[in-house]
Design goal:
Elements (H helix, E strand, L loop, with lengths): L6 H17 L10 H7 L31 H10 L5 E5 H4 L8 E2 L2 E2 L19 E5 L1 H8 L5 E8 L9 E2 L2 E2 L4 E2 L17 H34 L4 H29 L4 E2 L11 H31 L5 H32 L1 H14 L5 H15 L1
Antiparallel strand pairs: 1-5, 2-3, 4-5, 6-7, 8-9
Helix pairs in contact: 1-2, 1-8, 1-9, 1-11, 3-5, 6-7, 7-9, 8-9, 8-10, 9-10
C-alpha cells in the first residue's frame, strides 16, 4: 500500500466511492460531474464523533478494570486516547505471565503472546493476531485504575465476499482433496513454524470457502434481479461479479493449500433456494448480503493488506490487492441495486431496507457501520 494508505484512508476512499455509486449512479448512466467523480473517492468525510467507551455494553471491545464509573474528566480522556474499538484492557499482574520478554512501559508488559487473549477478554482465534501495546490509552486508563494496561488487538479475519445465505444461515461447501480450484502464485512457507502455517491455512481456507459460495450468491441474485425487471447494466455487473468470485476462490484455495501442505478444494455446494418477494425483498437481501457483506469484505481485505506490511509475501499481496479492487466494485453494485430498487418501489422498499439495517447493525464492526454504512444508508433517504 502507498504511504498515504491504511485503514483510515481505506474507509475514506470507500465512503467516497459509495457516495458516487448512490448519488450519481454511473453504472446506470446517471448524470455525474467530473468534479464529483474526481473528489468522491478521495475527499475525506467529516469524521463522526468517537463513540464513548464504557464498561456496560457488549461489543465495544473494551474491558474496564474498575467497577466505579470514572469522572467526566477521566472519561473524556479515555474517549480521546482509546477511540479504537479494538482496544482491550487488562491488569498488569494478570498479563505478566504472557509477556515475551522483560520490556515494560508504565508498568505493563509491552510484548504479549497470543496466550494473553483470554486474559484480555478476547476469544482465542485460529487466524493471525497482532497485539500492540497502546501507551496513550494505557495512560488514560491508569487515571482510573493504576494497574490498567491497554493493547490494540488486531485479528486478521478471513476475507469474505457476498455470503450465500439460506434462511439466514451462511452456506459453504465441504472441503475435499482435488486439483481444480487452485490458481495463483505460491507463497513462501519455509520460514514459517507449524503453528503459523496452520493459522494461515485456516484463515485462507475460510476465505476460500466463503468466496466460492459467493459465486452461488451472485448467480441467485442475477435471477432475482431478472424477476423484478432490473436494467441490463445491473444484470451484467452481477454476472461479472460471479466470475470475479471464481477467481478469488482459486487464489484463496491456492494459498490455503500451500500453507497446509496438502490439496484443499471445495466439494459440492447445495443449491440455494430461489427467493421471491418483489422489490422490497430484493432490496433487503441486497442490503444484507451486498451493502453489509461486500462493504465489510473490502475493509477486511484492506486491513489484511495493511497488516501484511511492505515486506509481506508477494503472492498474498497480489491476492489481497485483487480482492480489494473487485470487492469495491461489488460493494458499488450492491448499493446501486438498492438505490435502483428504492427509486422503483418507493417508501415501502426504503422501509424494508431500514428494517434490515436495524437487524444487521449489531453484527458489523462499529467503525465500518459508523463511518461507511450509516452515511451511505442516509443517502438513500
Amino acid at each position: 500500500m502507498s504511504a498515504g494508505s491504511g485503514p483510515t484512508s481505506a474507509i475514506w476512499r470507500l465512503r467516497g466511492t459509495l457516495r458516487i455509486a448512490i448519488t450519481c449512479l454511473p453504472l446506470l448512466g446517471g448524470a455525474c460531474t467530473k468534479e464529483a467523480r474526481r473528489s468522491g473517492g478521495t475527499q475525506s468525510p467529516t469524521p463522526s464523533p468517537s463513540a464513548a467507551l464504557t464498561d456496560a455494553g457488549p461489543g465495544t471491545g473494551l474491558i474496564m478494570v474498575a467497577d466505579a464509573a470514572p469522572s467526566p474528566q477521566v472519561q473524556a480522556e479515555i474517549d480521546a486516547k482509546c477511540a479504537d474499538f479494538d482496544i482491550k484492557v487488562g491488569r498488569a499482574g494478570e498479563l505478566v505471565p504472557f509477556a515475551r520478554d522483560d520490556a515494560r512501559a508504565r508498568g505493563c508488559p509491552v510484548n504479549l503472546t497470543t496466550a494473553a487473549l483470554p486474559a484480555l477478554g478476547t476469544v482465542d482465534s485460529p487466524f493471525a493476531v497482532h497485539i500492540d501495546f497502546a501507551e496513550a490509552c494505557t495512560a488514560a486508563q491508569q487515571l482510573r485504575s493504576p494497574d490498567a494496561c491497554a493493547y490494540q488487538v488486531e485479528v486478521r479475519r478471513p476475507v469474505r465476499g457476498r455470503p450465500a445465505l439460506e434462511g439466514g444461515t451462511e452456506v459453504v461447501a465441504p472441503v475435499q482433496a482435488s486439483a481444480g480450484w487452485r490458481r495463483g502464485a505460491t507463497p513462501r512457507v519455509d520460514h514459517l513454524g507449524d503453528d503459523a502455517r496452520a493459522a494461515l491455512a485456516a484463515e485462507w481456507l475460510a476465505s476460500a470457502r466463503a468466496e466460492h459460495a459467493s459465486v452461488s450468491s451472485f448467480a441467485r441474485a442475477t435471477l432475482e434481479l431478472m424477476a423484478v425487471g432490473a436494467p441490463p447494466e445491473l444484470l451484467a455487473a452481477c454476472s461479472r461479479a460471479a466470475i470475479d468470485e471464481v477467481r478469488h476462490a482459486e487464489l484463496a484455495f491456492a494459498l490455503a493449500s500451500a500453507y497446509a501442505g496438502c490439496a484443499l478444494d471445495p466439494g459440492p455446494l447445495p443449491a440455494l433456494t430461489p427467493r421471491g418477494g418483489g422489490l422490497a425483498a430484493l432490496a433487503r437481501d441486497s442490503f444484507l448480503e451486498g451493502c453489509v457483506g461486500e462493504t465489510g469484505a473490502v475493509l477486511e481485505a484492506e486491513r489484511a493488506l495493511a497488516a501484511l506490511g511492505p515486506d509481506g509475501d508477494p503472492a498474498v499481496r497480489d491476492a489481497l490487492e485483487r480482492i480489494v479492487r473487485d470487492e469495491t466494485r461489488h460493494a458499488e453494485l450492491a448499493w446501486q441495486t438498492v438505490t435502483w430498487a428504492v427509486a422503483s418501489g418507493g417508501p415501502a422498499v426504503l422501509a424494508a431496507v431500514h428494517a434490515a439495517a436495524r437487524d444487521a447493525e449489531p453484527s458489523v464492526r462499529p467503525e465500518t457501520w459508523r463511518e461507511v454504512i450509516a452515511p451511505s444508508l442516509a443517502l438513500l433517504g
